[in-house]
Amino acid sequence: MDASGGTAASRARFTDVHRHSRLLLALLTLLVCASCASPAALSLRTTSAERVKAPVVTGDGVLPPGASERVVDQRLNDRHETEHVREMIDAFRERAAAPLVAGNRVALLVDGPQTLHAIRGAIENAKHHVHLETYIFSDDEIGRALRELLIRRRQQGIEVRVLYDAIGSVTTPAAFFEPMRQAGVEVLPFRPLDPTRTLPWKLNNRDHRKIVIVDGRIAFTGGVNISGAYASASSSRPGPDAGREEAWRDTHVQIEGPVAAEFQTLFLETWERAGGRVDGSSAQYFPPLAPGGAELVAVVATRGGDRDEATIYDTYAAAIGHTSRRLWMTQAYFAPDDGLRRALIAAAARGVDVRIIVPSFTDSGLIFHASRKDYDELLGGGVRIYEQRYALLHAKSMVIDTALSMVGSANFDMRSFLHNNEVNAVVVGSDFAQRMEALFERDLRDTRELELQTWRQRPWMDRFKEFASSLFSYWL
Questions:
Q1: Among candidates 379, 392, 380, 382, which has minimal Cα distance to 330?
Q2: Domains (ranges, CATH) in the chain?
Q3: What value does the mean pLDDT take over residues 311-330?
Q4: Could you read off the pLDDT of 80-105 as tens digits, one per residue?
Q5: How many helices and strands (H and E) does the chain possess?
Q6: Residues marked as catalytic
Q7: Element (H, E) at 362
Q8: Does pLDDT of 221 surpass 50?
């Protein structure tokens, strides 16, 4: 999937319109704000008592409590401060509303080329079906190449379903999807901008997930969209000018094993919400799966707008509140509410090594400046913040105490917590966490650390942009 067929002008047009679509979404959400929950609702939700730990399950069913705890212990390194780490994992399990599924193999995928190559390979080898759910499906060299592959697989008898977000893909002409439909691929937009199909107060709920499921056996998720921005790797270090249109820094995972059924269930539920029909009881979609590896994985998802939930927020709050040693986060759109800011500062105050990699440039100026408004408080509270200098950062990941890792679509902001369909893959175990830490350390080499005193001397115009943008940050 080479980028040579595209032009700088076409990429610039894509990025401009994508930024404009964010503004359009902000205006639309202001119109329907009566349907929006408030951040206060989150803090109330996270104090609920008598929570039950999510079970550990295998391909054969739910494990009894004693066996569940032994499986968790087996995934932890002997060098852990076991008591504190288990408290953190137990707190996560109480908030996750999703089982820990044993017996999976998890591959860490870095940037677009590696991720898209793996997805294409899985689609090439599909035997029964391909299910794809994405926020952006672009009409560019990456999108057209994947479209042709999906058409070819459908012509070879494979079932193919594509679900894309109508606002995320607002710059993609409707005609782009017609060749797929004509070939028998089932294609649906999520919440189209059509009052006869989407009630106005539903427009605020967007499908921001990125999921691919192949044969009910292999699942992919993370931050990578179907877009020319991923044609080359961030290691090319394009810088702030070219980097807004190409070589984005992102993280994805490929998971094989019983937890694929959790992703399949999530896709089929959303497919039906979008108006699709499929026999979800078919064994072809939920084949019996032998263990593919040793990893414990939970699929933590939110279905924003249609349900009163904030599960992803809850799991972040629980993990941050119980971390005892190290919390390393990479976040493209970092705009936590007061509760999460206080939790990060409290973690730093009790000696936790809290480090956050954020962008130094982005495709969304409003959220970029709104995020920076809180850096003073965080830096003053002992949180270390690093800006990625050479590539546009789009990854959403976290690793805590070399024990719990999160990779997914959810930004660290109120839109993702309350209003979007989001999904995070959460891996419990030392092996994968060590790979995440190694990736974080590699990313640190391309950052500059912000210093509190220097930060406080930034220009007054930057401060004004931060204040003005923060007025809209909730909606972006």
A1: 392
A2: 3-21+108-273 (3.30.870.10), 34-104+296-475 (3.30.870.10)
A3: 96
A4: 667 889 999 999 999 998 999 999 99
A5: 17, 17
A6: 208, 210, 215, 394, 396, 401
A7: none
A8: yes
